[in-house]
Design goal:
By secondary structure, this protein is of the alpha+beta class. The protein has 13 helices and eight strands.
Amino acid sequence: MARRLDQDEGGAHFHGLARCGSWSACPVCSAAIAARRGQEIEEAIRNHQENGGEVLLVTVTLRHHKGHSLKELMDVLGDSWRYMKAGGSWQGGKRRRDGTQRVGWKERIGYVGAIGGTEATYGKEYGWHPHKHVLFLLEKPIPDEVLQAFLRFLRERWEKRVSEHHGLPAPSWEHGVNIVEGENAARYIAKMGLSREVAGIHQKEGRNGNLTPFQLLGKWADEKDRDAREKWEEWAEVMHGKSQLFWSQGLRARLLPESEELTDEEIVEGEDGPEELVAVIPGNVWDKIRDRPNVPAEILCAADLGGKAARILVQGIIARELFFRDSTSRAPPGATEA
């Protein structure tokens, strides 16, 4: 295992393991992918703001109940979002009856492009709760009256598509669509589960008793909770093959001209940049400790310290786990074989 020297935190990772490259179903691969994607987003936003650009964080969600499947809600979320940015009211360009040119919201707000991601939590009372976080990059800050009018446009479009076309309850006017602007938007990027501070959706925690997919996985592993297993499998099936996030066409190349674009598989196959070797874990030892709850994560946290302290802590964790494994496998004193 090694630690990236050009990362302040979250830089420890395992080498020499088989990787699946799944951001949605694998806690190990998800961590590596999210860390890389988070760095890209942060750098892109920084470059955009240094050039005078503005950032809006738009969040959309749905009213739902326990009877809605994750696939149904994800389909409604995706279709309704596409509808929000379709037609003349967004694109503009069409002429009115009086001959004047119609100006769409895309031009009115100085839209440059968007970066977005979708996530979901699950609660026993209301079921799946999917939501989409999208960063709107604008040419420059817009007046408050324009921002409020734009928010009203989005809310009306969202409510119309969700309730009239899909038959779901009308979204909350206040919470169905929400916008955070300026510096506050930059602070809320962590909500996408992609920044280095959060280091991936697998480490996020749900709110109000809701559980994230990886919390469901943990509940299944630790408590053998059958409902958690069922919901985890539903998440893994629905999200299989889907992208973790999207960039508007050409936006990444515009904001990160010198950064190579890697696939999820390429990210988990190898790490670039200077590294510090922390420890070498023999294969037979790894086989004994890899499935023990939280042990791989504990090893990574220790390795993040770097230097001699990291090596001592990692060796101590391994020795502890091997000791307890061997001690629990031995028969208690005085026991006799049948």
